[in-house]
Amino acid sequence: MKSGFVNIFGRPNAGKSTLLNALIGEKMAIVSSKVQTTRHRIKAFLNKPGEYQIIFSDTPGIIDPKYKLHEKMMGSVKSALEDADVALLIVDSNEDLDEVDAIFSSLRLRVPCIVVLNKIDRAGNGRIALAETFFAAKPYCRQIVKISALEKVHINKLLDAVLALLPEGNPFYSEDDLSDLPTKFFVGEMIREKIYELFGDEIPYHTAVMVNEFKEKESLVKIQADIIVNRETQKAIIIGDKGKMIKQIGTNARKDIEEFIQQKVFLELFVKVRPKWRDNELQLNEYGYK
User: Fold this and answer.
1) Which fold has domain 2-165?
2) Cβ-contact 62, 11 below 8 angstroms
3) Per-residue pLDDT averaged across 75-93, rounded?
4) Beta strand residue intervals within the chain, DSSP E
5) Where are the domains of the chain?
């Protein structure tokens, strides 16, 4: 029996969340074409009873913090550095390789590291060969695996490479569980994902979601959540003309939530203004950024 923590690190938009979802075969992390979508460390379990339990972790993209929110996000990365048994260092093959190397070197990981060259289906001419040669010479690189997380190309090959490095041991979690996070967390993330999908560059980064109520009734689940913004102008944009936009957020999120929990959902959303919440320690804790 093999069991251990396999944690995914990389720059924003390298494909960490897409890779986690591809490895687990379920949508565990929200995805967006916008950078810095992931704000929490998300653990997801891949179980094959009697053979292995792999605790994969998606982590926020590594950035220089500008707000307390960013500091909390980088704290999630630090916790993942401390318990990793294997590290997946994911890189978009089209990125600046020197900048990526500087980040990977700064992690100072003392566990086996697999460099995952992602987006091979979109790589420019010669970029894959260049990246392979570049990372093969780095001391932290135990192995290189080329994949497309979005197209699920070579995911099994990556899984085989992980299993070869994973230590022996008993499962850390119940083999019936997919994550150690509560359902409310995933509900909030699904609502936040729709904000990333429906609004421009500024709004998603000024927005948080807090799920206040999750009540299971006989025929449905009643969910009430607040969308937190910085300014009144952002509240007006989120609500939209005659409530059009918040209704769209709710409709889109409800479909995903119902698919996730396999139950009918009544979803009620409110928008609340909390100025400078991204730098307010008490509010960050209240919204789940601890």
Assistant:
1) Rossmann fold (3.40.50)
2) yes
3) 96
4) 2-9, 42-48, 52-58, 86-92, 113-118, 143-146, 208-216, 221-229, 265-273
5) 2-165, 183-286
